[in-house]
Amino acid sequence: MAPRDASMPFPYEHYETLAEPTTVYFPAGHDALARQVYQSVDKASKLLSQLLDTLAPEMEILLVAPEDWQYAPGEETEATAIMLPYWTDGTEPSTIVVPTQLDPIMGSYSQEKLAFLLFHEVAHAFLACDPHPWPLESPLWADEWQVQFAALWLYQQIYHTTGIVMTDLHMHYREIFEPEADSKTPVTVRGFDWYEDTTPQDYLEYTLLLERFADDLLERYDAAILPRFIELYRKEGVTWLSDEVTHLLGITLGNGGEAWLEELPYF
User: Fold this and answer.
1) From its phi and psi, is residue 65 left (phi > 0), alpha (psi between -120 and 50) or beta?
2) CA geometry: angle 196, 200, 204, nearest 5 deg
3) Mean pLDDT over residues 241-266, rounded?
4) Do β-strands 59-64 and 94-99 pair in parallel, antiparallel, or remain unpaired?
């Protein structure tokens, strides 16, 4: 696969479209996958609209063949460097871009795993388009936990299940959950950040920590903690430190919430 070059126009003219309320572009021979992706995005959007009490952002869906991935729209970031679904507002309207093949880094393929990845990008779109003002600065985890929490909640609601989704990856990277002498894991939800040498595997391991965190939250608390947290967190002109965000989340969880957070070895 060639390196991404999104400066070149995407060959939309070679793609087909579904007759759905949302425009879905897809390469020939992938109409079944296109319908599956549309249905996942549509169900997730309806549920998130109810949870967050907001209208779904206007979006299109673009399924991309591997040979066209280098031309997929949106600036190249860590999220677009490998073949995984991502949301971009670099198009009008915004687009959820979905590869027809998932990157091997994601392990074994399943429709459920693809749906979970799609739910993550639907949540990303909703939270990015939320009308609440943004803080001036905040730690990475303050935004990342919200997206992963919403994605897992959507998955559990739509598939009528509990627990994590990426079970094969949790087994493969199980050492990241083993506490060290200080009773904390080698990397924590609050301790991870982007550096020049951060790799896709580093970020994947971080998302697994976030998925475990989301599952532990959903075992104890209602999904309504997400809109409550947003009300406290999304403040214009505010700079949040990590300890301050921890305190906000503790307030959101209620009595004993912050103490519970501090006891989590991966947090």
Assistant:
1) beta
2) 125
3) 98
4) parallel
Q: Is the entire prediction scored with pTM above 0.90? A: yes
Q: Which of 146, 142, 108 is nearest to 125 (CA)?
A: 146
Check: CB of residue 22 under 8 Å from CB of residue 59: yes
- Percentages of the chain per state (helix, strand, coil), in multiples of 5: 50, 10, 40
Buried b (16+ CB within 10 A) or exposed e, 58-83: ebbbbbbbeebbbbbbbeeeebbebb
Phi-psi region of 91 (alpha: psi -120 to 50; beta: other; left: phi over 0): beta
**Residue 198 to residue 196: CA distance in whole angstroms:** 6
Taking only the tens place, the pLDDT of each residue in 29-60 is 999 999 999 999 999 999 999 999 999 999 99
Question: Under 8 Å CB-to-CB from 104, ≥6 apart: which residues?
Answer: none
Report which of 218, 219, 217, 223 is spatially closest to residue 250, judged by C-alpha positions: 217
- Whose tokens are 């060959």? That residue is 11
Nearest-CA neighbor of 62 among 9, 109, 104?
9
DSSP strands (E only) in the chain: 16-17, 24-26, 59-64, 86-88, 94-99
